[in-house]
Specification:
- With 466 residues, this protein is α+β, with helices and mostly antiparallel strands.
- It has 10 helices and 14 strands.
- Helix 6 packs parallel to helix 9.
- The longest helix is centred in the middle third of the chain and has 51 residues.
- 20% of the residues are buried.
């Protein structure tokens, strides 16, 4: 059974989300299309049946004439047969005096006498409580009067046109539903294929050996390229961290083996001595080796800390002058010997972007080295501004480091000889810190036989903007 991280919550499937949204869009589109088609079929049926109704009314009007002082009409059967089956047709013909001369005398709709000259008029009306559609046509008669029109009104119930509209709408609905289902099925298949690269990425990661942190080599769509690049970048950082951890563990094991063995041997010698003087001598040696072992462990821890922080450095604005002052105070508070000390820093703040913890450790290492192995009489620390750079110098009157050793001592575990104990990590830590901060570490010998260690930093952008 596979375990899941408590910080990763499985939400709804991306595939289900996409299918749901596509289905919703299709449903809304189908509904809108159906409404549009329904309205269109209603208009189409209305227009088609209105033309038939108008044509039939015109046929009756063509067969209406005035003779011997009376309006006559001969309704052709073809005029009524043109109307749709299943509908009831009603007609009535009025003379200019509004008298019924033909048709159903009970059908007496309102006559718009002042609009008859405009041609066939189409109106909705009622006949015996039933909704009908009417075509009203006026035919001018040779008579005097305010209304010289013979009026033909032909009406038809709406059964046929409603049936026609429903038939078209039902067919359209069937076509829309079938096409929507087919489109949704095609969209589901397409989305499944589109999301297949995510499955390939998952399989590629799942099948990886735990020790394999090499980049993924997959051909993926452009949309998932950023995801794979982020995964590769994360694995690269993880590989660097793991390599750093292994190196720190290996270095610690290698460096601690000899002093721990010597410490154990010294304790055995102490136990085997019966003479008080010899026991005191071995005790002093044991105390010294314990101190050296403690210093070595402290250096190894500091080196591991600097390596870890250099890989995930969080920079902030730091006043370099105040940082140097605080570190110098801390180092000198634990020293009994006090040479000629001087700290020369500008009155105005010297801002840099730095990690104060790792940078403070580097400054302490330089100060400790100077006080431990140099500076018999003098230790001066100066901070100067040179354009867009800050230069921090540590000057002492000790023997310093030979020029041919400057590059070698930047590397970890490079002893400087002269019987010195320890892992020689001080300058290696400084080099790591300066490289992580984009600065530089350099050495120099002055004409006055003083040895100089210089740290150079870029000024913070906020300070440059001023």
């Amino acid at each position: 059974m596979q375990s899941r991280s408590p910080h990763v919550v499985a939400g709804r499937s991306l595939y289900i989300r996409l299918v749901t949204r596509v289905g919703t869009v299709l449903a809304v589109s189908a509904a809108v299309l159906l409404i549009a088609i329904w309205i269109s079929t209603q208009f189409a049926a209305r227009e088609a049946y209105d033309r038939i109704l108008s044509g039939s009314a015109l046929q009756i009007a063509e067969n209406t004439w005035y003779e011997n002082g009376a309006v006559n009409v001969d309704v052709p059967l073809a005029a009524l047969s043109m109307l749709g089956a299943g509908d009831h047709a009603i007609y009535v013909v009025f003379d200019p005096q509004g008298r019924v001369i033909a048709g159903d005398g009970e059908f007496r709709p309102d006559i718009p006498w002042d609009q008859l000259a405009d041609g066939p008029l189409l109106r909705d009306g009622q006949y015996l409580g039933t909704a009908v559609r009417m075509a009203i046509i006026g035919r001018r008669m040779p008579v005097a009067g305010p209304h010289p029109w013979a009026v033909i009104v032909l009406a038809q119930t709406n059964n046929a046109r409603m049936s026609f509209a429903e038939s078209l709408g039902s067919r359209a609905l069937l076509v829309i539903v079938v096409m929507s289902v087919l489109t949704l099925v095609a969209a589901m298949f397409t989305l499944y294929q589109a999301l297949a690269p995510l499955k390939r990425i998952e399989d590629a990661i799942r099948e990886r050996d735990l020790n394999d942190l090499s980049p993924l080599t997959l051909t993926v769509p452009a949309e998932t390229h950023a995801l794979v690049s982020a995964i590769n970048a994360f694995m690269q950082r993880l590989a660097v961290h793991r390599a750093t951890m292994r190196r720190v563990i290996g270095d610690a094991a290698h460096q601690l083996r000899t002093p721990v063995t010597a410490l154990v041997a010294q304790m055995e010698l102490l136990e085997s001595q019966s003479s008080g003087e010899l026991r005191q001598r071995h005790l002093e040696q044991l105390r010294e080796r314990t101190r050296q072992l403690g210093a070595l462990v402290n250096q190894l821890i500091n080196h591991a800390m600097v390596q870890h922080r250099s890989d995930s450095l969080l920079l902030q604005r730091v006043n370099l002058g105040e940082l140097v002052r605080s570190q110098m105070t801390e180092v000198l508070s634990n020293r009994e010997r006090s040479p000629d000390l001087a700290l020369d820093i500008p009155e105005e703040a010297c801002w840099i972007q730095a990690d104060p913890i790792s940078l403070g450790e580097a400054i302490k290492n330089i100060l400790n080295n100077a006080l431990e192995y140099g500076a018999p009489h003098l230790l001066h620390v100066t901070l100067e501004r040179h354009g867009e750079r800050h230069v921090l110098r540590f000057i002492d009157d000790g023997p310093g480091i030979a020029a041919d050793q400057w590059d070698r001592l930047r590397k970890p575990f490079s002893p400087r000889g002269q019987g010195r104990m320890g892992a020689s990590l001080g300058l290696a830590i400084v080099e790591e810190v300066m490289r992580a901060h984009g600065g530089s570490l350099s050495f120099a010998q002055t004409p006055g036989f003083h040895f100089v260690v210089s740290l150079e930093f870029a000024a913070a952008r906020v300070e440059l903007a001023r």
